[in-house]
Amino acid sequence: MTVTPETARPELLSPETAADMETSFQKKMVELRARFILRTQADATTIRTLREQMAGNPLADPELLKQLIRTVHGLAGAAGVFGFAQISNAAHKLEMSLRRIDGVDDDPNSLLDALETELNLFWLKSVSEGETWVVDTRISG
Fold first, then answer.
1. pLDDT band at 141 (very low <50, low <70, confident <90, very high)
2. What pLDDT sits at residue 98?
3. What does the alpha-carbon distance between residue 41 and residue 18 come to, in Å, rounded to a whole number?
4. How far is CA 11 from CA 7, 24, 73, in A?
5. Which terminus of the chain, N or C, has less C-beta within 10 A?
6. Tell me, what DSSP letter sits at residue 102?
7. pLDDT tens by residue, 68-127
8. How far apart are CA 66 and CA 51, in angstroms?
9. pTM of the complete model
10. Considering Cα of 4, then 9, then 10, then 14, what sign does the dihedral take?
11. Rounded CA gap, 70 and 44, in Å?
């Protein structure tokens, strides 16, 4: 049976079709989670590189700052979509501080450290849940 929006109502699906859909959904979520984990590693590498290039002063180079904000913004959004509130919140707080939208006087370096902590906790949890890759990416310089 081909599942379309019109036929996707649970009461119209056979138990076999519903089970197949559930299995397919679970497989897709595992794949998406793996991609998200890899994305966090790539973002952490980008953030670390930008942090090193800024030499502790994120306001010194406007182009590097824009790149950092863009990367942190994307990470905040993706983490939120996947339900990783701690990463999303840490990235969002850093982004707002860098943009100076909310007037927070927090040191961006301490916020970068907080984001790094959340990412490291996420990676450790992912490894403990059976992921087979090794995480060695750090944000701090």
1. very low
2. 85
3. 35
4. 9, 19, 41
5. N
6. S
7. 999 999 999 999 988 889 999 999 999 988 887 544 456 777 888 889 998 988 888 877
8. 12
9. 0.68
10. negative
11. 13
Token pair in block for residue 99: 């943009």
Phi first, then psi, for residue 40 (nearest 5°) are -60, -35
**What interhelical angle do 62-81 and 85-99 show, nearest 10?**
150
Side chain identity, residue 136: D
- Give the whole-angstrom CA distance, residue 68 versus residue 76: 12
Distance CA 10, CA 13 (A): 5
Burial state string for 10-40 with b = 16 or more CB within 10 A and e = fewer than 16: eeebeeebeeeeeeeeeeeeeeeeeebbeeb
Whether residue 111 contacts residue 90, with contact meaning beta carbons closer than 8 Å, is answered with yes
Q: Which two tokens stand for residue 111?
A: 């916020």
Identify the three-state secondary structure at position 2: coil
> What type of residue is 42?
A
- Show the tokens assigned to 57: 């002063």
